[in-house]
Amino acid sequence: MGIRSLAAELLPSALQGLGRIAHAPQPVTTAEASTFAALSDKLGYLSKADLRQVRDAYKFADEAHLGQYRASGEPYITHPIAVAGLVADWRLDVQAVMAALMHDAMEDCGITKPQLIERFGAPTADLVDGLTKLDKLQFSTREESQAESFRKMLLAMARDVRIILVKLADRLHNMRTMKAMPAGKRQRIARETLDIYAPIAHRLGLNQTYRELQELSFEHLYPWRHGALAKAVSRARGTRRDIVERVQRDVEKAFAAQKIKVQISGREKTIYSIYRKMREKHAGFAQVNDIFGFRIVVPTLPECYLALGVLHQLYKPVPGRFKDYIAIPKANGYQSLHTTLVSPLGTAVEFQLRTEAMHAVAEKGIAAHWLYKTGDKGKTGKGTDPQHLGAIWLQSLIDIQDETRDAAEFLEHVKIDLYPDAVYVFTPKSKILALPRGATPVDFAYAIHSDVGDHTVAAKVNGEPVALRTELRSGDVVEVITAPGARPNPAWLGMVRTGRARSKIRHYLKNMEQEESRAMGEKMLVQALRTEGLQAPAADPADAEAAALWQQLTRWSGNRHRGDLLIDIGLGRKVAIIVAKRLAQLMHERGARPDAVTLTLGRYAADDAAPAQGVVFVDGSEGASVQLAPCCRPIPGDAIVGYLGRGEGLLVHTAECHTGKRLYERDSERWMHVEWADELTRSFETGVMLLVSNGKGVLAQVASAIAAAEADIRHLDMGPETATETAELRLLLSVRDRVHLADVLRTLRRNPVVLRVWRIKP
After folding, report:
1. To which H or E segment does residue 121 belong?
2. What is the rounded distance in angstroms from the CA atom of residue 685 to the CA atom of residue 713?
3. Half-sphere exposure of 19 (CA within 13 A, CB side)
4. In the chain, what's the furthest Cα-to-Cα distance?
């Protein structure tokens, strides 16, 4: 099954030998020749020269797969021919048809890419290569291999959408012919198809393929449920035949009276969609009343709305069940009018109205670019073209990849975007954006531009200020307010719904942490090197001697370049004094000598706790590289010390913190001397405990006293105790320093309801 099957694509270790049995070489049979004849009948849209290339590719694939058989016993070549036939149904170009015929040649037959380039050209070889799984690389876990293989396929697809079209055709044929496989493998492949490949087909507008993949996956995953529902639908089809025939006669008569040419066809929900609706609504089969419907195709766009008027005059519409996907297309380019009417017998019947071009897009999606190139003059323009919309999503894959090097994280982001149950919102300039259901103003901001998202501070919906976690609804007009100094908040990761927003936020936070850690590491290394009486060498790439020195140091430390080494020092993964001693040794070998003035600078303000690392000043602006320990919550005025945790940056404790003292006894060489800066940039949090008289309005009095002392309450905990005469309040207060805290405590003690108040210490 190779690339086509789940096991070969995403579970490589589980599918060795799956899908075919090797036998002695045998000649090409008449059945194989007739199968190719059936394929050639579908290729009438190609030129004679193209047909010769396809036949050449067939012969090449036939020779490569000679002697290979599928699990069903059929010659293996029947599978590539069937895939090529599905590709030909979409009228893809000759290169895509050739790639479909040879899509397993590299993976299963030892054919190399240079061989394909030499014989069929680079474009065809690139398509085949994009369809080949990563079976030559070694991964630590099966999950990593799955994610990496999937990432390769998606990125190849982003470069050339024909790759995913061939891949989906390949998967569809495998799902159709999977009964010969063991039950366990069938279930694994069906689950991956339902979770990944069917949503990809839907995302690209391939609705016919999407429905069939869902239906086949459901049949293999839950055969008993599928069988029971299939029987129920068959019975319902018989009992409701009279209703369907009567509705169709009425509709045909109404359109004939208005002299509107239409094509009317019956439509039946798939068994999987019925099953999903039953689960979502917790309803029985009898409660799902819109199993049958009608599709009406008209010549032009204005006639869609004329036909809608005819239907609404014929039967009464169900309120709230009309949707105009022509004016506002779905994210995958789908356009139709949907309306649900009440039939003469009281049953609900859904109608879909569209033009022929819209019908091509609805069934073939992005493949309609090749199938229906003439287009529809009534369409709303390039913005709704399936090729254009598909390209937007595929480009977003590359954007996410640029910011997400971890394969599992990339797969997580992509899965988020594969279920586009969309809401449609407007910018203040009336531009429409499609976002997934549950999206927030932050998703909206990143959908506009990453710079807008990064600097978002507030949002308005329909002119009213709203919280950034507010869920958007279709029709909302969203306005984002930005500020130059704003930056993403880590809490946003818990509220966004789009993979693009999530990857942009993570990328920004990672970069911010690295920049802060790098600056911190550079500062620490400079201070440590001063204790050796030396100045750090320049970071100028033009200085060949300094560049060679840094290269020698990074080779010793195991880092790729200077920046990585400084980040490791800033995060505490490497101790600055040890790196400084090695750097000093390298500089001594090159003739550098200690300088008395530099030596004095290095030892100035040092104490016994950190005799060789100088002083780090804390002013509140350090971010991820310097953090205040949550155990003792130091505030300006406290005596403090710094612990250089491994991978955690510099953690600041109070000098009397018991947790800090235990760390010092265990790892004393990682302690640094830190002091508060003269000018502070923010307030600091500390814990306070109050014992109060329990009564009406006590909490309000306490809050009023704290506000009067110009402090803020960041968190309050009253504990689980039942009502008694007294109560304990645990507060997290934001104060400027110890003097300010003392003022707050004095103000609280003067309040008659406060019996006792003290600062919480570990």
Report:
1. none
2. 9
3. 28
4. 105
The SS3 assignment for 265 reads: strand
Tokens, residue 692 = 């109060």
Cβ neighbours of residue 547 closer than 8 Å, sequence gap 6 or more: 540, 541
> Do 698 and 713 belong to one domain?
yes
Question: What's residue 731's pLDDT?
Answer: 92
DSSP 286: G
Neighbours of 449 (CB within 10 A): 12
CATH of the domain at 71: 1.10.3210.10
Cα separation, 416 vs 253, whole angstroms? 46
| DSSP letter (8 states) at residue 752 | T
Query: 534-541 — which CB contacts under 8 Å span 24+ positions?
Result: 534/583, 534/584, 534/587, 534/592, 534/594, 534/595, 534/598, 535/595, 535/598, 536/583, 537/583, 537/587
Render the burial of 394-429: b for 16+ CB within 10 Å, e for the rest.
Answer: bebbebbbebbeebbbbbbbbebbbebebbbbbeee
Measured between alpha carbons, how far is 644 from 569 in angstroms, rounded to an integer? Answer: 9
Question: Which residues belong to the active site?
Answer: 107-108
3-class DSSP state for residue 321?
coil
Taking the chain, what is the end-to-end CA distance rounded to the nearest angstrom? Answer: 62
Q: Show the low-confidence residues of the chain (pLDDT under 50).
A: 1-34, 134-141, 371-384, 386, 419, 603-613
Domain boundary among 634, 658, 676: 676
Please, what is the angle between helix 499-530 and helix 596-603, to 10°? 120
CATH code: domain of residue 422: 3.10.20.30
Rounded to 5°, angle at Cα 192 from 188 and 193? 115
Amino acid (1-letter code) at residue 622: E
| CB atoms closer than 10 angstroms to residue 289 | 14
Question: Which of 485, 505, 525 corresponds to the end of one domain?
Answer: 505
What distances in angstroms separate CA 510 from CA 507, 518, 627, one per listed residue? 5, 12, 16
As given in the structure block, the two tokens for residue 663 are: 């760390």
Q: Is 0.70 surpassed by the pTM of this model?
A: no
Q: What whole-number distance in Å separates Cα of residue 440 and Cα of residue 469?
A: 6
- Point out which residues pair with 268 in neighbouring strands: 292
DSSP for 417-436, written as a single string: HT---EEEEE-TT--EEEEE
Helix or strand holding residue 305 (H, E): helix 301-314
Cβ neighbours of residue 429 closer than 8 Å, sequence gap 6 or more: none
As a whole number of angstroms, the distance between CA 607 and CA 308 comes to: 85
Are residue 56 and residue 162 in the same domain, yes or no?
A: yes
Please give the backbone phi and psi of residue 423, each rounded to the nearest 5 degrees, phi first.
Answer: -115, 150
One domain for residues 454 and 330: no
Contact yes or no for 370/317 (Cβ under 8 A): no
CA separation for the pair 327, 319 (Å, rounded) = 19
Asked if residue 11 lies in contact with residue 146, where contact means CB atoms within 8 angstroms, the answer is yes
d(CA 442, CA 478): 10
Residue 448 identity (one-letter amino acid): I
Q: How is residue 195 annotated by DSSP? A: I
Q: 613 and 525 in contact (C-beta within 8 Å)?
A: no
Task: Give the CA dihedral 363, 365, 371, 377, nearest 10 degrees.
Answer: 100
Give the count of domains, the chain: 5
The pLDDT of residue 48 is 86
Kindly state the DSSP code that residue 136 receives in the 8-state scheme: S
β-partners of residue 479 are 460
Determine which helix (DSSP H) or strand (DSSP E) holds 245, and give its type and residue range.
Answer: helix 241-257
Per DSSP, 287 falls in state G
Q: Do 35 and 161 have their domain in common?
A: yes
* Domain interval for residue 710: 684-759
